[in-house]
Design brief:
By secondary structure, this protein is α+β, with helices and mostly antiparallel strands. The protein contains 7 helices and 10 strands.
C-alpha cells in the first residue's frame, strides 16, 4: 500500500524558516482582485503599504507561496501518484494578527490519515511561530483517490447541514480573465492554472482558478461585508472545495450570520447555474 498510515503519523516534523514582506502581501491581495476601485479607501487597506493590513488567508502563501500539499506528499510513509490527488479542504486558525512583514519558523507534519474506502485523506498540518509566539495553524485536507480500503479510521465527517433561511448578505465578485496568472505569482506555479494544453490533459477545457484564490476572495468578501473591514477579527476559517472556478466567471457568495461570532458561507459560480464552489464554509470571529 503506497500510504503507510502508522509511518506517516510517526514521521518527524519538518521545520524551516520562512519570511515575507509588504510586497508579498500586496501581490497576494492583488491576486485576489483587491484594488477595485483603485482609489477606494476600503481597498487601499489591501493595496497601499502605508495603510496595509493583512488578510488572514495570506497564511496559505506566506514564505514560499506553495501550499504544503506537495512537500507533505513526500513525507515518510506517503508515496502517491499526484494525478490522484485532490485538495479537498482547508482550515486556518489565527493565534494573532499576521504582520505585514516578518520571519518565522514553519513546522509541517501529517496530523491524521483517514480511510474513506475509495480514497485516503491526509491532514497536513503547518504550524507557524515567530519570536513572539504562535502565529497560525494551517490544515490542508488532501484526498488521494484509490488509496483507501485498509480498514483504518474513517475520520470525522466534514459535511454540514445547509444553513437555515435566507442569507443575510449576498455579494458577487467577478474573477478576471488574468486572475489565475496574477495569483500564481504568489508561489503556486502549477501549470493547470495557466497552460491550456496542460489543463486539457487534466480533463478541463481551459485553465482553472486556484482553489486557494477562491478561498481568499471569499474571506475578503466576508471581512468587507460583515466584519467592518477589520481583518483582526477573524479567528478561524474552514472550507471544503466543492467545485472548480474558471477565470472570467462570477462568484456568488452567500453569507449567514451564526450567533455573535460566526458566519456560514456558500460560494457558487453564477454562469454555471450556481454550481457549488466552496461548501461547509465557516468564518469564526470576535
Amino acid at each position: 500500500m503506497p500510504i503507510d498510515a502508522a509511518k506517516a503519523l510517526a514521521a518527524e516534523p519538518r521545520s524551516g524558516e520562512i519570511s515575507w514582506n509588504t510586497k508579498d502581501v500586496l501581490l497576494y491581495h492583488l491576486g485576489l482582485g483587491a484594488g477595485t476601485p483603485a482609489t477606494d479607501p476600503d481597498e487601499l487597506r489591501y493595496t497601499l503599504e502605508s495603510r496595509l493590513h493583512v488578510l488572514p488567508s495570506f497564511a496559505t502563501v506566506a514564505g514560499n507561496g506553495s501550499p504544503g500539499v506537495i512537500s507533505g506528499l513526500s513525507m515518510p510513509g506517503v508515496e502517491v501518484d499526484l494525478a490522484r490527488v485532490l485538495h479537498g479542504g482547508q482550515s486556518l486558525r489565527l493565534h494573532r494578527p499576521i504582520p505585514a512583514q516578518g520571519t518565522a519558523t514553519s513546522t509541517g507534519r501529517i496530523a491524521a490519515v483517514y480511510d474513506k474506502g475509495k480514497a485516503a485523506v491526509l491532514v497536513m498540518r503547518t504550524e507557524v511561530a515567530d519570536a513572539d509566539g504562535p502565529l497560525w495553524t494551517n490544515d490542508a485536507q488532501i484526498f488521494v483517490r484509490g488509496e483507501g480500503g485498509w480498514g483504518g479510521d474513517r475520520g470525522p465527517s466534514t459535511r454540514l447541514e445547509p444553513p437555515a433561511g435566507e442569507p443575510h448578505k449576498v455579494v458577487e465578485r467577478a474573477v478576471r480573465e488574468d486572475q489565475a496568472l496574477l495569483y500564481r505569482l504568489s508561489g503556486d506555479w502549477n501549470p493547470l492554472h495557466a497552460d491550456p494544453e496542460f489543463a486539457k490533459l487534466a480533463g478541463f477545457d481551459r485553465p482553472i482558478l486556484h482553489g486557494l484564490c477562491t478561498y481568499g476572495m471569499t474571506l475578503k468578501a466576508v471581512v468587507d461585508t460583515l466584519l467592518d473591514g477589520d481583518v483582526t477579527r477573524v479567528r478561524s476559517y474552514d472550507t471544503r472545495f466543492a467545485g472548480v472556478v474558471f477565470p472570467g466567471e462570477t462568484l456568488r457568495i452567500r453569507m449567514w450570520r451564526q450567533g455573535e461570532a460566526g458566519v456560514r458561507v456558500a460560494v457558487s459560480a453564477v454562469e454555471r447555474d450556481d454550481a457549488s464552489v466552496l461548501a461547509d464554509t465557516i468564518v469564526e470571529h470576535s
